[in-house]
């Protein structure tokens, strides 16, 4: 065995019986955080007796005539003295009895095997609340099975001197534990205790003197008093800015509606849902529906925010239970709440029997990155928080909390048969059981607990990638920003952490900082840059600026690899990637498909090839690096006002009504009137007039016929329009608000409309109509029939929730029909669903179910990377490699 950077390599020789006994013990005794990346088993037959032990060891380490296992993520990996500590094994008369440790080798460039930050383990949790333990109530307790990694590391290999713990000198007791191979804290780099570790201070924003302090050498009684004081502040309704693992949180009592409203007001966050942290799983199950997969996520090592369906308050009949969370203020208009359990000892110490729920939202202001150091937090959050709970362990890499959801299960048909892989006859590869992911899990925000894990390109796509060269840095989209680094030769793509929305100087600085730190860890430099095709995206402009800074080749020089280097001043090749194609490619990256699939991209905004705004496109993808045929799209509809329409969905509804059903405009004016009836009627008429003028000038031609009016095929904008049509939203304060509230309303409608005549006679999918003369083979999905039916239903007094459910059923019907036809035309049985609209759980699960059960196709959706723009950069990176062909 030997250390290889941040992983361990093992090579074993054994008989078949010994081999079986080894694996019976291997999996149960594997360290909790170890991850087996490869197991290769080769039958070699008898070994010549003359073979020397040293020679055997050299060959076996390369897995040329033995069985090799690569175990990554162990706490000791990367320590320069590990081999000496473990010893040279036992010598014997024959090579079969030797245990040989070879000298460590350097980690290959591009192979980043650093474990993400890990939630508090049960052993440390027991010690944390054990009055007899020396770490009793100490908020920085950890061991090799839990604690910070990525957020505290400065460089690799992962040793204490290379982390933010280097300033804390170990006390004799901690030093003994750190050096003892039989101890749970052997080489636990963040190891600390009350005698030698970080300290904690509680500050009042109104005064210079601390309210409380947890200093070095604090006694158990002093720790108890300190935490009682902190909890007292929270119970009193105060907002506390606390320094966590990857940055600051803003916390308050989630059952105190007034405290939550004050937090919203001070943070300028009027409607966006707030994440909550619960004391334990029992508390969560009292207030939310929790499935087994969701339990495993909440209590697992990543401990992300999990989106859960809330219970109705009427179901809460138990007496003596903690107060109910203020759902109407926490998640206005929604049915799901983001819940997490305490994942650090500091968080666990905030709760007691009276305090069971806390708001735990990101410590930042709108448009700014997460605060990570004490001074920055004081400047940014001083007007929001009443109290600050800070410590003196630096956060070297900022990370938000990850957000995940468990999608509804779909009963699959057997997938279509694929050609068997080309393997050597006597070689077989085992599949590690812990590599199997939880079923149906979809990451919506990828950060703590998942970063810096790479996405491994498998199957046919992995083979395709290995034919490519270079390192591609992709910059993603404009909202929910995240970069990605593709290393095709290694078959890896590293999705970067969530960055937030572009458009501010602070976020651009933060994005550059995060990319720089990632490149330092990987010890690689980009050879090409990928950006979105939208001409107005800040992320694209920033990516071009980086191409100018980092590149070595001037425009027009050779060696560009075929990527588009025609941008003025570009020094690195630049790949300009269309938005919806990148969504499809991102899901293909996870599925391991390199082509022969039908891809559906549904989202809000993407710059199309024709200069219009795309957002519901069906592509026929024969090869990732070939031509993509746009086979189907939603009909183009007018978007009056651009960004203003996205923020005010009533504008979209007015323009669509003018285009699709002018007879309904008078009714819509009444529907949208509100307290400013006269003014609103005038506004609606003005928007409708612009849309009508655009219709009179062109029925769908190239360009922008009327200033201020764009045309879009976006399904996301159609969801916004229907949300306004049913009277749900007038304006929005966060991305996707209208669609999310429409989904929640439709869930209620789907449960209550079984007996309604309108539901039983839901609209029949209209036949698609051909597009313009320039694209006679492209099919267009017409929206008019469902729009008119919804208007008539609502005008007759129909329930808005039922109308929302009818609309969603229509979307599933029409998309399933179009995809099935496209797959049949192409002769393929693989379908990709990508884009932010697939965060809608009804659309995501029902469309997949319809396709699998009725047509038998194999459906791939995003899982480890977000379906929306947070995963866009992964697809951009792959398509940049494809352009280099």
Molecular structure report:
- The chain is α+β, with helices and mostly antiparallel strands and 885 residues long.
- It is 33% helix and 18% strand.
- It has 27 helices and 32 strands.
- Strands 5, 6, 7, 8, 9, 10, 11, 12, 13, 14, 15 and 17 form a twelve-stranded mixed sheet that branches. Strands 29-30-26-25-24-31-32 form a seven-stranded mixed sheet, sandwiched between helices. Strands 18-21-20-19-22-23 form a six-stranded mixed sheet, sandwiched between helices.
- β5 and β6 form a beta hairpin.
- α18 runs antiparallel to α19 and α18 crosses α20.
- The radius of gyration is 29 Å and the shape is globular.
- The model is unreliable at 50-70, 72-95, 314-320, 412-437, 552-562 and 754-774 (pLDDT under 50).
Please supply descriptive tags for the structure shown above.
885 residues; alpha+beta; 7-stranded mixed beta sheet
State the gist of this model:
The protein is an alpha+beta fold and 885 residues long. Helix content is 33%, strand content 18%. Strands 5, 6, 7, 8, 9, 10, 11, 12, 13, 14, 15 and 17 form a twelve-stranded mixed beta sheet that branches. A seven-stranded mixed beta sheet has the order 29-30-26-25-24-31-32, sandwiched between helices.
* First and last CA, distance: 40 Å
The beta-strand count equals 32
Percent of residues in helices: 25-40%
Find the structural class using helix and strand composition: alpha+beta
Strand content: 15-25%
**Overall morphology:** globular
Radius of gyration: 29 Å
- Unreliable residue runs: 50-70, 72-95, 314-320, 412-437, 552-562, 754-774
């Amino acid at each position: 065995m030997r250390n290889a950077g941040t992983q361990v390599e093992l090579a074993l020789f054994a008989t078949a019986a010994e081999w079986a006994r080894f694996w019976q013990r291997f999996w149960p005794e594997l360290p909790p955080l170890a991850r087996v990346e490869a197991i290769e088993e080769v039958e070699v037959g008898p070994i010549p007796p003359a073979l020397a032990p040293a020679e055997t060891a050299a060959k076996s380490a390369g897995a040329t005539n033995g069985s090799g296992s690569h175990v990554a993520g162990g706490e000791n990996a990367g320590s320069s003295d590990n081999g000496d500590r473990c010893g040279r094994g036992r010598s014997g008369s024959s090579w079969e009895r030797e245990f040989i440790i070879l000298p460590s080798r350097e980690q290959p460039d591009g192979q980043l095997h650093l474990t993400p930050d890990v939630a508090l383990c049960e052993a440390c949790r027991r010690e944390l609340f054990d009055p007899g333990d020396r770490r009793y109530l100490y908020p920085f307790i950890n061991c090799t099975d839990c604690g910070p990694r990525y957020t505290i590391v400065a460089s690799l290999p992962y040793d204490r001197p290379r982390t933010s713990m280097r300033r804390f000198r170990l006390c004799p007791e901690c030093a003994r534990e750190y050096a003892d191979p039989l101890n749970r804290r052997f080489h636990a780099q963040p190891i600390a205790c009350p005698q030698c570790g970080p300290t904690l201070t509680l500050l009042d924003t109104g005064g210079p003197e601390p309210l409380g302090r947890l200093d070095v050498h604090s006694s158990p009684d002093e720790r108890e008093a300190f935490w009682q004081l902190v909890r007292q502040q929270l119970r009193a309704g105060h907002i506390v800015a606390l320094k966590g693992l990857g940055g600051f949180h803003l916390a308050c009592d989630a059952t105190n509606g007034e405290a939550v409203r004050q937090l919203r007001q001070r943070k300028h966050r009027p409607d966006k849902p707030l994440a909550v942290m619960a004391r334990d799983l029992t508390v969560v199950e009292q207030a939310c529906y929790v499935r087994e997969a969701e339990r495993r996520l909440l209590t697992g090592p990543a401990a992300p925010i999990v989106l859960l369906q809330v219970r109705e308050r009427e179901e809460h009949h138990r007496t003596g239970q903690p107060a109910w969370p203020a759902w109407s203020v926490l998640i206005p208009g929604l049915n799901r709440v983001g819940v997490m359990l305490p994942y650090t000892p500091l968080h666990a110490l905030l709760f007691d029997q009276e305090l069971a729920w806390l708001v735990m939202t990101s410590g930042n202001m709108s448009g700014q990155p997460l605060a990570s150091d004490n001074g920055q937090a004081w400047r940014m959050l001083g007007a929001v928080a009443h109290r600050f709970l800070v410590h003196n362990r630096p956060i070297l890499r900022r990370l938000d909390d990850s957000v995940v959801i468990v999608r509804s299960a779909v009963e699959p048909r057997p997938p279509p048969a694929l050609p068997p892989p080309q393997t050597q006859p006597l070689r077989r590869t085992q599949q590690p059981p812990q590599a199997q992911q939880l079923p149906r899990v979809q990451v919506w925000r990828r950060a703590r607990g998942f970063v810096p894990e790479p996405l491994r390109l498998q199957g046919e796509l992995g083979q395709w990638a290995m034919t490519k060269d270079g390192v591609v840095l992709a910059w993603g989209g404009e909202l929910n920003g995240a970069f990605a680094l593709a290393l095709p030769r290694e078959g890896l793509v590293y999705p970067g952490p969530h960055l937030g929305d572009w458009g501010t100087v602070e976020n651009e600085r933060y994005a550059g900082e995060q990319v720089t730190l990632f490149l330092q860890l990987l010890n690689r430099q980009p050879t090409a840059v990928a950006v979105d095709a939208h001409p107005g995206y800040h992320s694209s402009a920033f990516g071009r600026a980086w191409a100018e800074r980092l590149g070595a080749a001037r425009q027009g020089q050779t060696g560009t690899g075929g990527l588009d280097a025609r941008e003025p001043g570009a020094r690195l090749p630049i790949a300009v990637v269309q938005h919806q194609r990148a969504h499809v490619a991102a899901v293909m990256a996870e599925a391991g498909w390199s082509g022969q699939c039908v891809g559906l991209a549904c989202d809000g905004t993407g710059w199309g090839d024709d200069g219009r705004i795309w957002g519901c496109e069906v592509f026929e993808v024969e090869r990732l690096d070939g031509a993509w045929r746009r086979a189907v799209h939603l009909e183009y509809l007018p978007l009056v006002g651009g960004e203003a329409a996205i923020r005010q969905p009533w504008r979209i509804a007015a323009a669509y009504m003018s285009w699709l059903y002018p007879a309904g405009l008078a009714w819509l004016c009444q529907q949208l009137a509100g307290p400013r009836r006269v003014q609103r009627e005038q506004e609606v008429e003005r928007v409708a007039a612009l849309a009508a003028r655009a219709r009179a000038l062109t029925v769908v031609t190239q360009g922008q016929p009327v200033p201020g009016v764009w045309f879009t095929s976006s399904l996301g904008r159609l969801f916004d329009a229907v949300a306004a049509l049913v009277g749900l939203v007038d304006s929005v304060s966060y991305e996707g608000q209208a669609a999310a509230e429409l989904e929640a309303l439709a869930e209620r409608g789907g449960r209550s409309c079984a007996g309604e005549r309108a539901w039983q006679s839901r609209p029949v999918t209209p036949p698609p109509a051909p597009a313009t003369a320039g694209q006679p083979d492209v099919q267009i999905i017409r929206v008019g029939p469902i729009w008119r039916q919804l208007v008539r239903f609502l005008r007759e007094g129909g329930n808005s929730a039922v109308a929302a459910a009818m609309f969603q059923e229509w979307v599933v019907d029409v998309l399933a029909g179009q995809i099935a036809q496209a797959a049949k035309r192409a002769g393929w049985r693989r379908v990709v669903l990508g884009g932010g609209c697939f965060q809608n759980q009804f659309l995501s699960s029902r469309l997949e179910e319809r396709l699998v059960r009725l047509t038998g196709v194999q459906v791939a959706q995003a899982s480890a990377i977000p379906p929306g723009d947070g995963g866009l950069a992964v697809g951009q990176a792959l398509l940049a490699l494809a352009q280099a062909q």
